[in-house]
Amino acid sequence: MCYAAQLGVAGWYWASPGSRRGRSATWVTPQSYDPFGRFPARIHGLPGGGAALIVEATILNGRGMSGMSDDEVRHLFQTVDTFDPDAFAKLLAEDATMVFGNAEPLVGREAVADGLRAFYATIGGLRHRIVRHWRVGADSIAETEVTYRRLDGKDVSAAAVTIWRTRDDGLISDYRIFIDLAPLYATT
Lowest-confidence range among 57-61, 83-87, 128-132? Predict the structure, then answer.
């Protein structure tokens, strides 16, 4: 079932840019807009015409839908910040996939741990500050500010978004990190 339908979004009107509300609008249901149920969405009209896609999510409050609780999300990022790839790998399913930015996917616990080990060798440390996080079904989304310690001792911060899927047994099956690491490796 489509996430938007699960969240109670019955449908929305899609209006072309320049059209007025109620004119040239098409009724869209979650199933017709997102037939594969990949993400929840709702369309909102914009002043002056046009429309905006608003992704709907449930903000975590430590209970409710599947996915990770507030404490589990904090534990996840605290584990990453320990700089111990094997500890992070224990949070993953045996066949988990991890994608870091536009790098090739790492498949399996051991490959993820090896990839983290290689990445950690290029930095002096890191820490995450969770800005906010959401849960949509089995998927969790976290906006974080990550402060990296460069090998020259300078700290560099960057905004990041991490999206992961948690299985029924609590293990992560898919983990994706979106961040621009250019400032971390800049020579100035």
Answer: 57-61
Query: Phi/psi class of residue 81: alpha, beta or left (left: φ > 0; alpha: ψ in -120 to 50)?
Result: alpha
CA atoms within 13 A on the CB side of 117: 9
Q: Is this structure's pTM higher than 0.70?
A: no
In a 3-state reduction of DSSP, which class is residue 12?
A: strand
> CA-to-CA distance for 163 and 21, rounded, in angstroms?
34
Tell which residue, 175, 178, 179, 160, has the closest CA to residue 68. 175
pLDDT tens-digit profile of 160-184? 999 999 999 999 999 999 999 999 9
CB atoms within 10 A of CB 139: 20
Q: Are 26 and 56 in contact (CB under 8 A)?
A: no
Two tokens at 181?
A: 């690491």
**Structure token pair of residue 109:** 């616990």
Helices (H), the chain: 3-6, 30-33, 70-81, 85-89, 109-120, 182-185
Task: Please return the burial class of 112, using the count of CB atoms within 10 Å of its CB with bins 0-12, 13-18 and 19+.
Answer: buried
Site of tokens 């948690």: 166
